[in-house]
Amino acid sequence: MNSSFDIIVVGGGHAGAEAAAAAARLGSGVLLITMDMGKVAQMSCNPAIGGVAKGQIVREIDALGGLTGVVADRSMLQFRMLNRSKGAAMWSPRSQNDRWAFSNEWRMQLEAIPQLYLWQDMVTSLIFKDSKVVGVCTASGQQIFANAVVLTNGTFLNGRIHIGDISFGGGRSGDPASQGITEQLVGMGFDAGRMKTGTPPRVDGRSLDYSKMEVQEGDSLVSGFSFLHTQKPTKQKHCYIAYTNPEVHDILQTGFDKSPLFSGRIQGVGPRYCPSIEDKITRFSDKSRHQLFIEPEGWHTVEMYINGFSSSLPAEIQYQAMKKIAGFENVVFFRPGYAIEYDFFDPTQLQNTLETKIIENLYFAGQINGTTGYEEAACQGLMAGINAHRKINNLSPLILSRSDAYIGVLIDDLVTKGTNEPYRMFTSRAEYRILLRQDNADIRLTEIGHKIGLASDERMDKVRKKISSTEKIYKILHELSAIPEQINPYLESIGSAPLTQKTKLHNLLSRPGVQLQALQLAIPELNNQIQLESYAEEAAEQAEIAIKYAGYLIREVENAQKMLRLENIRLHTTIDYLNITSLSMEARQKLSHIRPETLGQASRISGVSPADISVLMVMMGR
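User: That's the sequence. What structure does it adopt?
Assistant: Structure tokens below.
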């Protein structure tokens, strides 16, 4: 085996897979070290990709040239575009996936990259030289050297699994924990903490009575995640919805005395927005029921995932409580739910590139930074892989701003604000969410991905054609008019005021409730002109959104440009904030700890006031 590589990626989860793939495809020689090569990008929890804000992230990964969207499309069981009834900024793609097909597809994608190599082993320590990382040591006694190392350890760092009053070491059910790295990094000056996450029971689908549940079907139109024309399923599997009830809650409460969550044996902080079932019935005691999503694990298995029933209670309590749910009377468990505690590192110890501030050429990505979710991990891995490659090749870093992408929001939130609980992305975290829609991720980011060499020429060509078609359709809507007798029946059917004279279509489309697709049905000339475009469906959607949200989009662009002025003012890393007496004491302490790279980043630090920013602006002016 080669003992030296350009980049070593530690961990083969979602962050590690994207990091290794990106760096290798950009030209670096990459070694991906994982404890089990049969579980690359394993869906350790929910076998699904996307959802609110998370779906936008996957489309951004794809637009930049990453692989999660492609893999998700090729392993899909069901697809739904969430929030279609709301504004376009809220539309979020989500897929149910075949757990095994997803992992296998990722493995094939990685093996197809010439400069990427895999090694099955456990990394036990890092090798340093003069405050730089230069390699790793493994459990099998290997010393492997590299110019940069990306740590994507997930939940494996000193991982501990809890089921009732039983606990044991493990990074995931059936896999050992990783030990040694946390202690070594803490000794180097890093701050570490503990977090908790959990997973629900998996059950035998043959034991369930689906007639007592609500059916949740997929969309008839499967648009998927990738902007490429990837393979999509021709059929879809159903998901189901069930509900807990007071009897279920009563049984669960009988096990609270053995719950590690309530006994204090779990020290880590759990996810606020995805609590365990015992946490839910405690925090929301006024609720008589909680929704559960019954989701298939694959095409060729009867295993079902009970989304919403995450638990660390004793297995027998979980089983007895679940039997009282309608449709679960004869349920058969494959394995109980469990909680897992693991180490993470305060992400304010990172630069915007995800390189650590203490050790040069060492990058962190994924749950090691305090995030939760495959999508959040994957986008960090992508950016860490890109930036590690660019750093060792003396290229400028790739940093996405908050107005560029949800990925930019996530990384900026982490390195600027830190987190004391598992971080999950929401649309509400993005102040420019009307700009950062899932439908325009390719327009926003593919040129960036193409410029650095990650997004293919094929992708760039598709984006250019889409933009060209959008501009043509936008022009058509501003030139064509509707006549009253042509369009009034439609307008009256949706309760919109009828026309009394010819009206330009863009004015008509700006009305609430008026849809472009309906205008195409009512006006043959419009339909014929739109269908002539090579990317008619996607381009028509872009043009419609541009017209309907014109005022909002203009305002968000103006706000983003104002903030960009602060982002362009760099703050030197050697500034002695503690001696700037005109700053508040809190600002001096926070700025000294985080050491923001720009004035814009400084303005987003909790405790740094507008007055403090004014002081810095005056100082920078001088």
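DSSP finds 22 helices and 22 strands in the chain.
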